[in-house]
Automatic annotation (TrEMBL):
Transmembrane segments: none annotated. This is DinB superfamily protein. Residues 25-147 form the DinB-like domain. It holds the Pfam family DinB_2. The lineage of its organism: Bacteria, Bacillati, Bacillota, Bacilli, Bacillales.
Length: 161
């Protein structure tokens, strides 16, 4: 198995194939905009929707890097990636989920064409391609855990599986 075949496998498991941990796609399935916008009372945490936007931003950034394109909507700070313009707007929430799916599939398609000699190719931020992709997978998994914890707190995810 090549390095990139392994990365594709890990990307698939982090997004939609159950493994030792729940993947992102099922963690977002069945949520309404209201549930995605919910925040525990008195808690300084990001909502599920804010977290989904954050994940989408960094997936899109990698996609632009791999396609050697400029991002038209770069942010100045990481906090800006958590922004939600229309909380409780069901169509806007469904667009976010759909965009995550589209970007994920495009990333899988592109990463699947890479060869081991591409692994250490530097991306525009100076990070080797393979390392960046690996970090993004861990990043997605970390935030998926946060999403599931929020769902458990709101009662929309089983407390035990």
């Amino acid at each position: 198995m090549s390095k990139f075949e392994l990365l594709v496998r890990e990307m698939e498991h982090a997004y939609d194939q159950r493994d030792w941990y729940a993947p992102l796609k099922p963690a977002l399935e069945g949520l309404s905009a209201q549930q995605a916008s919910w925040r525990p009372e008195g808690e300084g945490v990001n909502t599920i929707w804010e977290t989904a936007n954050h994940l989408l931003y960094y997936k899109r950034q990698l996609l632009h890097y791999l396609k050697d394109e400029e991002m038209s909507d770069c942010v100045q700070t990481n906090n800006e990636t958590f922004r939600v313009d229309f909380p409780h707007d069901e169509e806007a929430w469904q667009r976010t989920v759909s965009k995550l799916e589209d970007v994920q599939q495009e990333l899988l398609s592109i990463v699947g064409t890479k060869h081991d000699e591409d692994f250490d190719t530097l991306l525009p931020d100076g990070e080797p391609m393979g390392n960046y992709i690996s970090s993004l997978i861990r990043h997605d998994s970390f935030h998926t855990g946060q999403i599931i914890q929020l769902r458990k707190l709101q009662g929309s995810w089983p407390s035990k599986r």
